[in-house]
Amino acid sequence: MRFTRMAAIAAVAVLAFGTAACGKDEPATPAGGTPLTSKAAAGQLKFGVKADQPGLGLQVGTNYEGFDIEIAKIIAKGLGGDPAKNQYVTTVSANREPFLQQGTVDVVVATYTINDDRKKKVNFAGPYYTAGQDLLVKADSTITGPDQLDGKKVCSVTGSTPAKRIAEKYPKAQLQLFDNYSKCVQALSDGTVDAVTTDDIILAGYAAQDAFAGKLKVLGKPFSSEPYGIGVKLEDKAGCTKINEILKAAVADGSYAAAWNATLGKSGTPAPTLDTSKLTNCPA
Amino acid sequence: MDVFSDPLNRQAFLDGFAMILKLTAASALLSLLLGLLLAACRVSPVPVLRALGAGWVHLFRNTPLTLIITFCFFGLYSAMGVKFSDDIDINNYWLAVVGLSAYTAAFVCEAIRSGINTVPIGQAEAARALGLTFAQNLRLIILPQAVRSVVAPLGSILIALTKNATIAGVIGVAEASSQMKQLINDNGDAAVEIFAVFALAFVVLLVPVGYGFSALANRLVVRR
Question: Is the ipTM of this complex over 0.90?
Answer without folding.
Answer: no
